[in-house]
Design a protein that fits this description.
275 residues; alpha/beta; Rossmann fold; 12 helices; 36% helix; 21% strand; disordered C terminus; binds adenosine-5'-triphosphate; ATP-binding; transport; ATP hydrolysis activity
């Protein structure tokens, strides 16, 4: 089967500095693919290449066998590429439902049209759809609350809902578990597993390798913009080059890798070996 997402020989340089180096990645349709690697490895840069923020210096990106390199940023959503962000980007003065509905702009029109049916009795297919997505992400009881008063975990789920309501064929989740406590993280795994349609392909940047092992069926590890391992998540997370990339060669008892204390089968395994 042809991959739904195909990156071939992707290179990106900034002022002569190579950030992504001759990278090949293929992702199967419907896969939940984890993208892991230490800080600065190039993970978010890949998302920025896919969503059109950056253009590769060389190489080719295909979605559903169509090259997308020339498609401008504001048209990528129409190709079916939806994303969330490492740092929350919600309209905090709007309600949960309003925030979610804003993810329908490419399907419905400008925000004045999207939000017009709120507070009215119109039958409105897109409002109903946003409410359904909210329900599947466990947001039903908060739907009319302002985003700004809600917990970080709930706000993270609103971002996922806003991306999902745009009916993406490729969903990019940038560190969905970052900043969540273990209860929120487990809830997120459960709602993602049940709410994302099986034919939606999901690429997940995440430092929390337990999260990746639980949710994903495929993983790719990067370091310095290069692929250092790929395959099933358990093997990738424990691959010697991945362990070394996260922990370094000479620090076997390291416990607190910068952004991800819980992360890392790699980290945990190394600690256990050292104990
Ligand atoms: N616009 C830019 N100009 C110059 N360098 C950049 C730019 N964007 C990213 N980089 C560099 O590219 C490298 C990869 O950054 P990126 O944010 O993709 O890493 P990451 O793997 O997502 O890291 P983290 O886990 O910390 O988010 C870093 O060295 C970063 O400084």
């Amino acid at each position: 089967m042809k991959p739904v997402l195909f990156l071939h020989a992707i290179t990106l340089t900034f002022g002569g500095l190579s950030v992504i180096d001759n990278l090949d990645i293929q992702v199967r349709k419907g896969s939940r693919c984890g993208l892991i690697g230490p800080n600065g490895a190039g993970k978010t840069t890949i998302f920025n290449l896919l969503s059109g923020v950056y253009r590769a210096t060389a190489g080719e990106i295909r979605l559903d066998d169509e090259p997308i390199d020339d498609v401008p940023l504001d048209q990528r959503i129409r190709l079916g590429i939806g994303r969330t962000f490492q740092n929350l980007r919600l309209m905090k003065h709007l309600t949960v439902l309003e925030n979610i509905m804003l993810g329908q702009h490419h399907l419905v029109g400008p925000w004045t049209r999207i939000l017009a049916p709120l507070g009215s009795r119109w039958n409105c297919a897109w409002r109903d759809e946003a409410e359904e997505v909210a329900e599947t992400l466990g947001l039903r009881e908060d739907i009319h609350k302002l985003a700004q008063g809600l917990s970080y975990g709930v706000q993270k789920r609103i971002e996922v809902a806003r991306a999902l309501v745009g009916r993406p064929k490729l969903l990019l989740l940038d560190e969905p578990a970052a900043g969540l406590n273990s209860t929120e993280r487990n809830e997120l795994v459960t709602v993602l597993a049940s709410s994302v349609p099986s034919d939606t392909t999901v690429l997940i940047v995440e430092h929390d390798t337990d999260f990746v092992r639980t949710l994903c069926d495929q993983a790719v590890a990067l370091n310095f913009g290069r692929k250092i391992a790929e395959g099933d998540p358990a093997s990738v997370c424990s691959h010697p080059l991945v362990v070394e990339a996260y922990l370094g060669k000479d620090e076997p008892t390291y416990r607190n890798h910068s952004k991800s204390t819980s992360s890392g089968e790699a980290a945990i395994q190394r600690n256990e070996n050292a104990a």
